[in-house]
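Team,

Forwarding the record for the chain on the shared tracking sheet. I've put the sequence and predicted structure together so nobody has to dig through attachments.
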Amino acid sequence: MELINCLKATSLASIQAKNLDNYMKKILFLCLGNICRSPLAEGVFSTMAAEQGLDLFVDSAGTGAYHIGELPYHATRKVAKKYGIELTHKARQLKVADFEVFDYILAMDNNNFRHADQLSQKASSMRASLHLFREFDSDKSSMEVDDPYYGTEKDFEKCYQTVKRCSEGLLMFLTNR
């Protein structure tokens, strides 16, 4: 069983070339710049899914174009590495085609959810179900994954713990369907 940890493609043609129909589900994590929260979620969730033997296609993207082609932020990679996860994803921007390819698009906060929802109106067909990632969190104190970008190492650790809980909840949701 093959698990693809991240999608390097930036066009619908290259996404389709990967024959994604062979995967149980296709999951896309979404934040603003695709260098902190969403690549961390991609790495954590991919690792957990692989440990359960699930055949999922997992990717991440940003609503903004600020960091296209860049690796995740150094502090994001550092916290992931602390837990044995290597993040090699290169930032990309959310595309209209993503709504036609992915089953679930999981936004890290309300602003990115709204942006994605607006962009989804341009899709010719809608496959994706758009959610806030924290809908799957056992801790309901907030519906947003805090952006650690301007924060300290402690903020990146908190982000990791939030993403881990949400990933556990999402895996339960997917495996109980």
